[in-house]
Amino acid sequence: MDPTPPQQRQTPLTPPPPPIPRQPDSTSILFPFLFFLAIIATVLLPSASPSFKNSLSILHQVPEGHVGVYWRGGALLKTITDPGFHLKMPFLTQYEPVQVTLQTDMVTDIPCGTKGGVMINFGKIEVVNRLSKEFVYETLLNYGVEYDKTWIYDKIHHEINQFCSSHSLQQVYIDVFDQIDEKMKDALQVDCTRYAPGIEIISVRVTKPTIPDSIRRNFEQMEEERTKVLIAIEKQRVAEKEAETIKKMAISEAEKNANVSKILMEQKLLEKDSARRQEEIENAMYLAREKSLADADFYRVIKEAEANRLKLTPEFLELKFIESIANNTKIFFGDKVPNMILDQRLLGNYLQEVSRGVAKMVKVDA
């Protein structure tokens, strides 16, 4: 056993462990950093460019009619966002809204020289165009955000100069001015379809170009003369129309009178024809009536003749003669009576002559 008492026994001393280093809290670092960023944004954003603001912002809004396009480190990303709120990484990612609805690009102050060497200036040309949403990435990859400067602004200058150099001032200012809109639209669309198929040219509006004052006065005088000629031609046409109208009215009036006369004549003819037919009917009726009367008289005479032929026999005639003589109340005075009464031969001859006359009448009537 150890003779040393317990209270006197000493244990060897060990050094204390080194203190563990304290890990810094992430929130204590993040808050000052964000506070520092807020101070910088407050100071710099009012005077910063839009692109710089877009690079600083985390939450951004894509307006209606646009799509959101993003760059990271200068490289175009394939990410394309629709209208609404979206998030991105500040400083590293830049954002630009690109319009995909109808937009009007106005190209101003376009000088050009005509085929005759006269310098003119188109004050304003408006190009209505649209970028297809499906070709946004390809178009911006090849031509950048200012794609319309390449294919609209610069292209309009080129096409206008090409057009002017192949036409005279008379043609550009008057003769074919109404065709410039369609020619510019077709020229722009052909190249856009070939090299930038996402760009659609809807229409082109070209204003009247500005020409030198001396030439403009000549054109104004020519226009005045042309207007006078047109007015004279129009007056002549009006006079011709009036004469033609008067002629048509006269012809119409004559035709109306002729038609009225024709109708009246036809009416009179119908009346005459009706009267003629009525007279014919009356004549036929009268003729029929007279014929009936004549036939009746003829029949009566025939019948009387037949009756007389049967009745007038010598005996009947002798009787009638005797009755006639008997009815004679004459008184003769003298010593001699007339021989006619007593002459029987004379009486027979007379009766024979009467019979022959009656027979001849009957034959004639038959």
Automatic annotation (TrEMBL):
Protein's cellular compartments: Endoplasmic reticulum membrane
A Pfam family matched in the record: Band_7
Membrane-protein topology: Single-pass type II membrane protein
Chief place where the protein resides: endoplasmic reticulum
Keyword set, alphabetical order: Endoplasmic reticulum, Glycoprotein, Membrane, Signal-anchor, Transmembrane, Transmembrane helix
InterPro entries with a match to the protein in the record: Band_7, Band_7/SPFH_dom_sf, Erlin1/2
Band domain location: 57-223
TM region positions: 29-48
Keyword Iron-sulfur tagged: no
Composition bias type Pro residues, residue spans: 13-22
UniProt-annotated stretches for the region Disordered: 1-22
Family according to the record: Belongs to the band 7/mec-2 family.
Stored PANTHER family: ERLIN, ERLIN (ER LIPID RAFT ASSOCIATED PROTEIN) HOMOLOG
Name of the protein in its database record: Band 7 domain-containing protein
Taxonomic source organism: Stylosanthes scabra
